Automatic annotation (TrEMBL):
Catalyzes the 3'5'-hydroxylation of naringenin and eriodictyol to form 5,7,3,'4',5'-pentahydroxyflavanone and 3',5'-hydroxylation of dihydrokaempferol and dihydroquercetin to form dihydromyricetin. Belongs to the cytochrome P450 family. This is flavonoid 3',5'-hydroxylase. Pathway: Pigment biosynthesis; anthocyanin biosynthesis. It comes from Durio zibethinus (Durian). Keywords: Heme, Iron, Membrane, Metal-binding, Monooxygenase, NADP, Oxidoreductase, Transmembrane, Transmembrane helix. Its cofactor is heme.
Length: 509
C-alpha cells in the first residue's frame, strides 16, 4: 500500500509539472505571436518613468521619432501606448474608440475629482452619460451657448473697461489673471446666476492659483499610478498636495452650493444651470446624481472652463506680440468688417477668417492639453499589426501631432495663413480632422469643445480689436517657455501694456 501511495504522488507531481511546463511554453509561444509596438526598454522596476523628465510631451515626441507613431512603454508595472501622428490617433480614437472609452483610476481622479465622481474621469456608462447630457443641454451645447451669449458680452465689457483703466494709469495687464477673473464670472453667471468675484483682487488671484495648481498636479506622472503597490508611500508627495488642494476646492464648492440654495426663491421662473441640474438628477435608466457628483461636475466646469481657454488666448496674444505683422493684418481685417465705433460681436466672427486662422494656429502650436487625458483599454486589441494588452493606458501626443513636419509645413513657425487656403483651409478643431485635435476626439472628446472655441474666438477677437498690444518697459525678448500640466501654461505669465484703439463710446456698454 505504501508503494502505491508513493507512485501516486510521483504521478501527480509529474502531471502537475507537465501541465505547468505546457502552460509556460504556450504562454511564451503566444507572447511571441503577440508583438508589442516598439519603444524604449526603460529601467528595471520603474520602466520608462525616469525617461519622461519634466516635459513628458516633448520627451515622448522625441522618442516617437525613433520608435514610430505607435510606441509602447513599460511604466512601472503598467503598460502605456502613445500615438503621435494623425493616423495613429484616428486608429485609437475612432476605430478603437469604444475600447478606449474609460479613464485609468489615477491619483488625480481619486484625490481631486471626488474619486472619479465627475464627468471628466468617470467610467463610460450611465452616470457619465447623464452628466454629459445635462451639461450639453443646459450649458455646453449649441442652443445653451446661444442663450448665455449676453452674459459673455457683459462680462467681457467689464474686462475691457478694466483694461482701459490700466492703460490710463500706465500699468501693465497680467493677461492670465485678467482672463481667469472674467471667465470665472462668465461661468458663475451661468451656473449660479451671480458673479463669482465682485472685484478683482486677492480672492480671484487665489482662485487662479488653485486652478493652475489643480491642472498642473493632475498632469504629473505619479510613480504610485504606475506601481500601485507603493502608492501608499507617496514618494513624490503628490497625493498629500492633491488632498490639501481638494479640501480647499470642496470648501469653495460647498459654499457656492449652500449660498445658491438659500437664494432659490429669487430665481422663480428663471432657473440657472445648477437649478436645472438639481431638478434633473435622475434619468430614464434610474441613474441618480449625488450631491458629490454635482460638486465634482462644478469642479470640472470651473477649472477646465477657465484654464484651457485662458491658456490658449494667452499663447495667441504672446505669438501676435512677437509678430507685429500678424497683429496689423488682424486689425486691418477687423477695421474693415467692424470698424472702430463699436466692439466686436459674436455674429462678426464668421466674417473674420484671419481671426479664425489665428485661433486654429494657436490650437495647433500650443494645444491647451498637450497629452490627451489618459484612456485605458477595456480589452486587448490590435493596431497596425501590434498587440495592445488589456488595461493599457493610452496617451495621444496632441502637441507632437501639431509639430509634425510630415503634416505641417514649417511646423515651428506661427503662420495663421496656412489655414486660409489649400488642404488646411477646411480643417476643423472639433475632433473630426485628426491633424488638429486640441480637444481630443471620439466619445471622450472634451465636453466643452464648443464653449472653448466660442470663448477663444470671441474673447481673443475682442482683445485684438479693442487694443494695441506692447511689451512693458520698452519691449525685450518675450519668454515663450512652457510648463507642463493637464493644460499647457506659459512658464512666465504674459504681462503687456495696452492702448485703446476704438472710439471711447465702444467701451461704455
Amino acid at each position: 500500500m505504501a508503494l502505491d501511495i508513493s507512485l501516486l504522488r510521483e504521478l501527480i507531481a509529474a502531471t502537475i509539472l507537465f501541465f505547468v511546463t505546457r502552460y509556460f511554453i504556450r504562454s511564451l509561444l503566444k507572447k511571441s505571436k503577440q508583438k508589442l509596438p516598439p519603444g524604449p526598454r526603460g529601467w528595471p522596476v520603474v520602466g520608462a518613468l525616469p525617461l519622461l523628465g519634466s516635459m513628458p510631451h516633448v520627451t515622448l515626441a522625441k522618442l516617437a521619432k525613433k520608435y514610430g507613431p505607435v510606441m509602447y512603454l513599460k511604466m512601472g508595472t503598467c503598460s502605456m501606448v502613445v500615438a503621435s501622428t494623425p493616423d495613429a490617433a484616428r486608429a485609437f480614437l475612432k476605430t478603437l474608440d469604444l475600447n478606449f472609452s474609460n479613464r485609468p483610476a489615477d491619483a488625480g481622479a481619486t484625490h481631486l475629482a471626488y474619486n472619479s465622481q465627475d464627468m471628466v474621469f468617470a467610467d463610460y456608462g450611465p452616470r457619465w452619460k447623464l452628466l454629459r447630457k445635462l451639461s450639453n443641454l443646459h450649458m455646453l451645447g449649441g442652443k445653451a451657448l446661444e442663450d448665455w451669449s449676453q452674459v459673455r458680452a457683459v462680462e467681457l465689457g467689464h474686462m475691457l473697461r478694466a483694461m482701459c483703466e490700466s492703460s490710463r494709469k500706465g500699468e501693465p495687464v497680467v493677461v492670465p489673471e485678467m482672463l481667469t477673473y472674467a471667465m470665472a464670472n462668465m461661468i458663475g453667471q451661468v451656473i449660479l446666476s451671480r458673479r463669482v468675484f465682485v472685484t478683482k483682487g486677492s480672492e480671484s488671484n487665489e482662485f487662479k492659483d488653485m486652478v493652475v495648481e489643480l491642472m498642473t498636479s493632475a498632469g504629473i506622472f505619479s510613480i504610485g499610478d504606475f506601481i500601485p503597490s507603493i502608492a501608499w508611500m507617496d514618494l513624490q508627495g503628490i497625493a498629500r498636495k492633491m488632498k490639501e488642494l481638494h479640501k480647499r476646492w470642496d470648501v469653495l464648492l460647498t459654499k457656492m452650493m449652500v449660498e445658491h440654495a438659500a437664494t432659490a426663491h429669487e430665481r422663480k421662473g428663471k432657473p440657472d444651470f445648477l437649478d436645472l441640474i438639481m431638478a434633473n438628477r435622475e434619468n430614464s435608466d434610474e441613474e441618480k446624481l449625488s450631491l458629490t457628483n454635482v460638486k465634482a461636475l462644478l469642479l470640472n466646469l470651473f477649472t477646465a472652463g477657465t484654464d484651457t481657454s485662458s491658456s490658449i488666448i494667452e499663447w495667441a496674444l504672446a505669438e501676435i506680440m512677437k509678430n507685429p505683422k500678424i497683429l496689423k493684418k488682424a486689425h486691418d481685417e477687423m477695421d474693415k468688417v467692424i470698424g472702430r465705433n463699436r466692439r466686436l460681436e459674436e455674429s462678426d466672427i464668421p466674417k473674420l477668417p484671419y481671426l479664425q486662422a489665428i485661433c486654429k494656429e494657436t490650437f495647433r502650436r500650443h494645444p491647451s492639453t498637450p497629452l490627451n487625458l489618459p484612456r485605458v483599454s477595456t480589452q486587448a486589441c490590435e493596431i497596425n499589426g501590434y498587440y495592445i494588452p488589456k488595461n493599457t493606458r493610452l496617451s495621444v501626443n496632441i502637441w507632437a501631432i501639431g509639430r509634425d513636419p510630415d503634416v505641417w509645413e514649417n511646423p515651428l513657425d506661427f503662420t495663421p495663413e496656412r489655414f486660409l487656403s489649400g488642404k488646411n483651409a477646411k480643417i476643423d478643431p472639433r475632433g473630426t480632422d485628426f491633424e488638429l485635435i486640441p480637444f481630443g476626439a471620439g466619445r471622450r472628446i472634451c465636453a466643452g469643445t464648443r464653449m472653448g472655441i466660442v470663448l477663444v474666438e470671441f474673447i481673443l477677437g475682442s482683445l485684438i480689436h479693442s487694443f494695441e498690444w506692447m511689451l512693458p518697459h520698452g519691449g525685450g525678448e518675450l519668454n515663450m517657455d512652457e510648463t507642463f500640466g493637464l493644460a499647457l501654461q506659459k512658464a512666465v505669465p504674459l504681462s503687456a501694456m495696452v492702448r485703446p484703439r476704438l472710439a471711447p463710446t465702444a467701451y461704455v456698454s
